[in-house]
Predict the 3D structure of the following.
Amino acid sequence: MNILGISAYYHDSASCLVRDGIIIAAAQEERFSRIKHDSNFPAQATAYCLEDAGIKPHQIDLVAFYDKPWIKFERLMETYLTFAPRGIRSFLLAMPLWLKKKLWMSELIKKELPGYKGEILFPEHHQSHAASAFFPSPFDQAAILTMDGVGEWATASYGIGVDNKIVLQHELQFPHSLGLLYSVFTYYTGFKVNSGEYKMMGLAPYGVPKYMMTILDNLIDLKSDGSFRLNMEYFNYCSGLTMTTQKFHDLFNGPPRQPESKITEKYIDIASSIQKVTEEIILRMARHIRHQTGQKNLCLAGGVALNCVANGFLLKENIFDNIWIQPAAGDAGGAVGTALFGWYHVLDNKRNSDRTNIDSQSKSYLGPEWTADEIETFCKDNSYPYTRHTEDETIDLTAEAISDGKIIGWFSGRMEFGPRALGARSILGDARSETMQSVINQKVKFRESFRPFAPSVLAEDVNEYYDLSIESPYMLLTAQVKEKYRSVISKEDMQQSCLDKLKVIRSKIPAVTHVDYSARIQTVSKKDNPRYHALISKFKEKTGYGLIVNTSFNKRGEPIVCTPGDAYNCFMLTGIDILVMENIILYKNEQPEYKAEDSAISFTAQKKLTIE
């Protein structure tokens, strides 16, 4: 039985194909359209999923959409009426899309899937999140916590999953939202809502949480169980086109920081403060859920679950024995959740009881892949100089190049599903380098200098470098660098202010050590990704260190690469030295001159996927 899950029309549209309870394929539309956070109907992602499964639309047995549009519309209308006439501009902007598309989702889906005449299932938004958290997890039963901006009315919910059923017991409702609270401060600190939250999280360790009590005393009435109410006098997201009011600006002594302007100490301290408030709310929620449900396992989803710093604190508190986080925790993961909700909860199919301690997400390698022959053809067709090697030669040459300080574009196997690069579409570097962090930020990613990088570390070696009690294959947990790898810091360096701390070398692996000695860790096991594991193992053989820098294969403002053409384009327009695609290696100094206006040439290997 084939079930197609779809999320669309807010941000990060995606599709997922589930066959007999197994996730066959999943992908975000942005990877094909090359529009970051693309919210349009995921036509190309759907076409990929159907092609990978070898089926046509008429062979789909059930389509599931990740929320209930009519209830969401009810919430919008009630909100506009409550705040009228202040929300008139927002209302006029929103209504055309709702009246033309969003309210007619069944008709739209059937139009986009010519030949499909079956049922369309509409779980609630947080049911989709909960299903994405529990059903792929390795647990037979678990507590579930979902947190995001807003679904229909719910902004957070908790409940229990047992075998093939999930029951959400309580929810927090709009406008009181942890996700929106975090986004408010993302906006105020000068970053883009729905994409800049990572930046604010990365900025937070440079500051001091001196505004934490200002937030707790004025903006939020926080209870011991983690529930809260926001003081809406400070927020504008219900009725306006911005996130904050003048009262908010007065409280923090000034307007929002202008994007791309200098980041002053005030905004850094504000970022630190809201991060600490977020951690406190999540910890209170978790303690309450453990007490109420009695469950020893916890599953997390929703956009807030991508806050790996808060996840790290939650793990360290030992409130639950085990934690599993949906790697595509945001709206894209709703496509997975809604498909699995249909298979298990609605159709009442039993889960496989033989999956002890193994999740069913396939380590999120669920996207398209290209063979070495296909990549070689791509290079020949475009007259790009390359060399082809055996597998052992490729691994050895790449590990040697990393140890020599080269920056590698690594294109291997199936593309990742979710926001993290996990060794399939990654940019790699030497974690021991004192300059690698700044070079990749400035010459490859073209982004803010303070942004930290994550290590990919051999799963069997993670306890050598970090205080981490479990594996972290999805890069969703932070942990501290062990003392023996930390550097001795002078008194003068310890007194550096804010972003000047960036210049201080804090460990023997400085490229992956953040200012607070933390790292967002990806553990790599031989079972889950044998090729990537072999590369890091070879690097360890050459250097003695079983970890490397891993960041997503893209430059600022663009989605992670999907095709060989995407990879070559990013390679040539950034400071990447070597591009490795399967067993094909391309060296920058051997390539013909390449300009931004020439980039369309590189997409000859990328066909426009269409649903037939």
About this structure: Confidence is low (pLDDT under 50) at residues 601-605. The chain is about 35% helix and 15% strand. Residues 265-293 form the longest helix (29 residues).
